[in-house]
Amino acid sequence: MSEKHDTAPREFSTVISKLRAEFNGVHPDTTVSRCVNAARHGAQDVTGRATPDLVERIARQHLRVLAVALSEQG
Fold first, then answer.
1. Residue 50: which domain range?
2. Looking at the domain assignment, is residue 31 inside a domain?
3. How many other C-beta atoms can be found within 10 angstroms of the C-beta atom of residue 40?
4. Greater confidence, 2 or 56?
5. Domain with 35 in it: what CATH number?
6. Is residue 3 part of a domain?
7. Which of 35, 53, 60, 64 is 20 to 30 A off residue 26, Cα-Cα?
């Protein structure tokens, strides 16, 4: 699988930057990027569209849940 396949389209770069800043020190940048990509694919599969606003909300929720799960492990 090529790296380009896992790269979010340019329109989501603002979402990734915003969430990286919000979760700085909580999640690595790669985790944020993966969550945005997963949210984008999920939104597209479920609703047939993946707007930056929707993807941001889904990814943020996933990152919050992941943070809680990781804090409970430590």
1. 13-73
2. yes
3. 23
4. 56
5. 1.10.8
6. no
7. 53
